[in-house]
Design goal:
123 residues; alpha+beta; six-stranded antiparallel beta sheet; 2 helices; elongated
Length: 123
């Protein structure tokens, strides 16, 4: 009887280890957080996070509202875990000056959105 109990304990330990292993198949990743807010001016903030640590955050700001040169400036980033297990973050912006990768993240407090909304999305 003791041998059977030991085998069952070892089997349960094996199952626990296998179930706690990181997801290898990226197609099995699930969205665990998803937020989207837009105000009456057209400014927006969205973000999401997946079970395989893919994160994206983006903010769109209406510039020159109601003017002929009205446009949306976009600031954001995405991050993921590379094959070496290291976190990678890429910041980006899209403004009148074009699309840029690697700019410092814009101060999110000047977006025109309530700070509480921005804080809830940033975490």
């Amino acid at each position: 009887m003791t041998g059977t109990v030991l085998k069952i304990v070892i089997l349960h330990i094996f199952i626990a280890v296998v179930n706690s292993a990181p997801i290898k198949d990226e197609s099995l990743a699930e969205i665990i957080e998803n937020n989207y807010t837009i105000d009456v001016k057209g400014n927006y903030v969205f973000s999401f996070k997946t079970t395989n640590d893919l994160i994206r955050y983006e903010e769109g700001i209406v510039v020159n509202s109601g003017e002929p040169n009205e446009h949306i400036e976009v600031y954001g980033y995405y991050s993921y875990i590379n094959d070496a297990g290291e976190p990678v973050r890429v910041d980006y912006s899209a403004t009148e000056e074009g699309y840029k990768i690697g700019d410092e993240q814009k101060d999110m407090t000047i977006s025109g959105l309530p700070q509480s909304v921005v804080a809830s999305l940033v975490g």
